[in-house]
């Protein structure tokens, strides 16, 4: 427990340190702070809610509204431009038809064509160029909420240079832009790596795909909810809707990933069932969206309720029934519990915001994005756990590779062993030309009896080294067992050249008197006859028989 708490403190301190360093760099480089001029203090909002109740508010502190509610923002434009270049009025809205009037003249409209096409509105960001005649006057911006319930229409009205207007979402979001933009790129790279490794036949957990998809969707959601996609893409339909598709999909890989690391079969099934339920709901929502023109946002409450219930179920599982199969389980569990608690707090604040009118001095509470903090904590715990899992996978693969290698290597000589050669010969085709050389070390018994077994080992090592030096053909060579060695080559000529090279190497050792007795091998060569379709074992037996005859001949000569 002491080590776990120390690790948690280390991670928290590292995250805080990284946050401070990045924030300092962003402020120093003025990233996320494009020049702008705020108009909020001059704005008056006239509200007519869906029940016909009216109200006038300054600084846009008015209740969240339901479908059919209308707002008219009176935005006072200053007498002269705060910039030397062309200027645009920038603001954003959710799920609304938007019209802008100057002196009762319609100068801008967005959303009515979507209403006619039964399309969804989403997270809209508007850039309205300011003409010379607007300076010192008032623009009337009429907003009609077209879908959803209890939608927040708070927005910052800002003047910006037209060439900088796309950077409006960067204001105050430089850190999030860098953080989630990097996560987006890394998650794509991680998924591509997973696909490549799986295609290549590598053993890699499916949880890697789940976590990469989760991080990708999470990044898309955070970037789109902050309208940061508008920085890159000048397509309002893509940028406005990506938030909803991603948030509907996020629970699928999230609970799938959490299920992968469960040891308990019941808990694993619960997580996979929740993941499957969200997948079914998403497909249902897509069908209703495409076929019956029900907008995705109409199912937002259902998704939130399901997600909230799933969070409570997850907290219960993680607290009372979790047994993980990887290291760092306490860090993972604590990260999950803290992040889920913060998300529940965010839901509570959303409910409070819906049933109360936030005063200005309390409004900062609703600007604290507890869900983002939860995401950072959860991703930190995920990265830590995934890192441990990746290290464990690498270690396991390395051990398996080493074990496999040792299974095919002769421990004493260091060259391939009989199992390796047998596996190689099993793959030879009946129509393939090849030759087998079977060899036996001469004088091994003499070496063991006269000089001891260490001398016999030296003899075998010297023959193995000679094979290693002289085997240049395609095929394989190995110690067959005891004092026997084998080589499989692709032609009779290769076999003869290999044996000749072996004899020359052994003769050099004899001339140098490497061992206190003459070094030699007896050998036999057998060729595979494709006309009678011999098996490798039959060819080997033939080479073994010829080797034995040569050994007797050499023995008689000696």
SSE layout and pairings?
Layout: H1 2-29, E1 37-38, E2 44-48, E3 54-58, E4 70-76, E5 87-94, E6 96-102, E7 105-110, H2 112-116, E8 123-129, E9 138-145, E10 158-161, H3 174-199, H4 207-225, H5 236-249, H6 251-260, H7 265-291, H8 300-320, H9 329-355, H10 363-367, H11 370-407, H12 418-426, E11 435-441, H13 444-451, H14 453-470, E12 475-481, E13 484-489, H15 492-511, E14 521-527, H16 536-557
Antiparallel strand pairs: 1-10, 2-3, 2-4, 4-9, 5-8, 5-10, 6-7, 6-9, 11-13, 11-14, 12-13
Question: Would you write up a description of this structure?
Answer:
With 558 residues, the protein is α+β, with helices and mostly antiparallel strands. It is built from 16 helices and 14 strands. Helix 14 (453-470) crosses helix 15 (492-511). The chain is elongated, with a radius of gyration of 38 Å.
Summarize, please:
Helix content is 53%, strand content 15%.
Give the ordered list of helices and strands: HEEEEEEEHEEEHHHHHHHHHHEHHEEHEH
Give the percentage of residues in beta strands: 15-25%
Counted beta strands: 14
Overall average pLDDT: 83
Uncertain runs are 1-5, 355-362
Shape descriptor: elongated
Figure out the total of helices: 16
Radius of gyration: 38 Å
**Sheet with the most strands: spatial strand order:** 3-2-4-9-6-7
As a percent range, the share of helical residues equals 40-55%
Distance between the termini: 75 Å
Oligomer: single chain
What structural category do the secondary elements indicate?
alpha+beta
- Largest sheet, strands/sense/barrel: 6 strands, antiparallel
């Amino acid at each position: 427990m002491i080590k776990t708490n120390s690790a948690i403190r280390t991670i928290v301190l590292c995250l805080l340190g990284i946050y401070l360093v990045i924030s300092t760099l962003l402020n120093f480089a003025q990233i996320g702070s494009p020049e702008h001029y705020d108009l909020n203090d001059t704005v008056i909002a006239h509200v007519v809610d869906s029940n016909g109740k009216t109200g006038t508010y300054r600084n846009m502190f008015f209740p969240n509204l339901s479908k059919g509610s209308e707002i008219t923002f009176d935005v006072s434009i200053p007498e002269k431009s705060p910039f030397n270049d062309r200027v645009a009025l920038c603001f954003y809205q959710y799920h609304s038809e938007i019209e802008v009037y100057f002196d009762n003249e319609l100068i801008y409209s967005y959303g009515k064509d979507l209403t006619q096409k039964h399309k969804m509105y989403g997270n809209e960001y508007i850039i309205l160029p300011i003409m010379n005649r607007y300076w010192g006057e008032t623009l009337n911006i009429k907003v009609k909420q077209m879908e959803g319930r209890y939608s927040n229409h708070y927005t910052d009205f800002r003047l910006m240079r037209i060439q900088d207007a796309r950077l409006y979402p960067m204001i105050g979001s430089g850190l999030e832009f860098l953080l989630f933009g990097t996560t987006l790129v890394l998650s794509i790279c991680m998924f591509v790596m997973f696909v490549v490794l799986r295609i290549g036949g590598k053993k890699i957990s499916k949880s890697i795909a789940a976590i990469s998809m989760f991080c990708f969707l999470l990044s898309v959601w955070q970037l789109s909810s902050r309208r940061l996609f508008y920085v890159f893409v000048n397509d309002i339909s893509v940028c406005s809707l990506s938030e909803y598709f991603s948030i509907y999909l996020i629970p699928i890989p999230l609970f799938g990933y959490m299920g992968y690391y469960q040891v308990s079969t019941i808990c694993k099934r619960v997580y996979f069932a929740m993941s499957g339920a969200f997948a079914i709901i998403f497909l249902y929502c897509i069908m209703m969206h495409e076929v019956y023109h029900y907008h995705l946002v109409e199912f937002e409450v259902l998704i939130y309720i399901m997600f909230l219930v799933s969070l409570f179920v997850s907290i219960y599982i993680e607290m009372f029934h979790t047994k993980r199969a990887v290291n760092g389980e306490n860090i993972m569990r604590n990260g999950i519990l803290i992040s889920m608690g913060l998300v529940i707090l965010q839901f509570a604040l959303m409910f409070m915001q819906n049933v109360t009118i936030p005063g200005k001095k309390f409004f900062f509470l609703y600007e604290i994005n507890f869900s983002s903090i939860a995401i950072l904590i959860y991703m930190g715990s995920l990265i830590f756990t995934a890192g441990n899992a990746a290290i464990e996978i690498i270690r396991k693969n390395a051990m398996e590779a080493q074990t496999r290698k040792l299974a095919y290597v002769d421990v004493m000589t260091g060259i391939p062993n009989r199992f390796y050669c047998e596996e190689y010969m099993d793959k030879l085709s009946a129509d393939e030309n090849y030759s087998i050389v079977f060899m036996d070390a001469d004088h091994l018994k003499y070496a063991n009896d006269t000089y001891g077994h260490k001398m016999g080992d030296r003899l075998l090592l010297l023959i193995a080294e000679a094979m290693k030096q002289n085997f240049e053909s395609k095929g394989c060579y190995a110690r067959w067992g005891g004092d026997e060695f084998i080589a499989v080559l692709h032609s009779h000529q290769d076999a003869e050249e290999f044996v000749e090279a072996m004899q020359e190497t052994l003769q050099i050792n004899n001339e140098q008197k490497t061992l206190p007795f003459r070094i030699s091998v007896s050998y036999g060569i057998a060729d595979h006859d494709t006309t009678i379709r011999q098996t490798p074992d039959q060819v080997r037996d033939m080479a073994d028989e010829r080797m034995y005859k040569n050994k007797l001949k050499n023995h008689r000569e000696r």
